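Progress narrative, Year 2. Work on Ferredoxin from Skermanella aerolata advanced from sequence curation to structure prediction during this period.
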Amino acid sequence: MSETCTISEGSLKAPTRHPVDWRNPDFYDEGKLDAELRRVFDLCHGCRRCFNLCDSFPRLFDMIDATESGELHDVGSDRFKPVVDACTLCDLCFMTKCPYVPPHDFDLDFPHLMLRYRAIEHRKGRTPLAIRELTKTDRNGKLAALAAPVANWASDTGNMLTRPALEAVAGVHRDAHLPRFHSKTFALRAESDGLTPNRKAPAFGRKAVLYATCFVNYNNPSIGTAARAVLAHNGVETEVVYPACCGMPQLEQGDLAAVSDRAAKVAGELAGWIDRGYDVIALVPSCALMLKFEWPLIVPKDAPHRTSVEKLAAHAFDISQYVVDIARNAGLAPGLKPLPGGVTLHLACHARAQNMGPKAAEMLRLIPGVDGKAPDVKVVERCSGHGGSWGIMTENYEVALKIGKPVATQALKQSKAFVASECPLAGAHIAQGMERLGKDAPQPPAEFETLHPIEIFARAYGLAG
Ligand code: SF4
Ligand code: SF4
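Result:
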């Protein structure tokens, strides 16, 4: 039976999250982990609100339902790993569904329990070598930039020579879209773009550091270029800073010491800019989530870089959030023109997890609609299923497409000129899902493009593309 509930449904207080106690030996005690898994899984079994969020919950519920008793006690703990493996740490169950998160007495944090399981796996050396190597984004990005055409040739999904080999050696599904590389990173481009802030714009005087993020720096510099152009047009002086990746891929693997080390390096450098009056803007929502929420939970209170981490968390913005902040508090520079065709906007899970409201939608709705109509922005609030490095692996790729199918279906039905997601990996994954739906589904408009919302905003200003 599910645990007896002596507590009212949900909590009236604002949700909180406990620090991740990863330096405590108890954190790695497998008996204690198992007891906690059983406690939480039994609560979820009795609740089931999250049945359609991802593949973790269906795997758990199917296992329980297949027992004779229909209860968790008849499921062996050795069968829990697939439940953990299916979690992409999207945080949606914690942020959007669960009434039992702290300070509720049930004290339930499903994603961070999955994280603890992975931390134990990692400590026992069970993280596959291929995943550890594939997610060394700075090393890989620097190497690939030296020979970007070769790297892009090798990673192209149409390459029948290299992709089957990559699948066999590294477990990357041969059909999974992989990000492209550029010989000139975003940080290098910014050094010579000659952009200066518009002195006549209402927001002139603001200063912001763009934390490039590994993805924008190595794989999609045009997101950074668009952000920098929009901000300069609005009077904001920007500097591009990229000390290192935020460590989200290492978080996914449960390597919490590595995450804390990244926080020391990145927060240490960004805190100096904050002291000189700069705001900090992260260009990818997963990285913004790390700066604002995950690092303060992971970096110990007594760590030398704790002060920098707290300072950064208080001054970090998501790019859409920052543009909306300018619009609200200073006013935008004129020049936005309608973009015909409308936008399907996927709200990325890690943007939602920042608890800031649908800022990408608010930003895109600042663009005037065609012929004086309201802006044509249709929002899709479901997980794309990609989950960072998770969705490209052979064992997850089909599941990732299955989870993302409702998003792809809605995007096809809406048939807009732009499909936008703040998460560039999600955007590419949704496009693959749309292609996959086949000829029986509605067809995408011939010219549709997958872009980051800030790229669309820059186009509306006539600044890019
Ligand atoms: S964090 Fe996301 S993927 Fe993980 S269990 Fe919750 S909803 Fe599912
Ligand atoms: S995470 Fe919370 S809302 Fe989701 S199934 Fe479990 S108890 Fe229910």
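The chain is about 50% helix and 5% strand. The pocket of iron/sulfur cluster (ligand 1) is lined by residues 50, 53-54, 56, 87-93, 110-111, 114 (CB under 6 Å).
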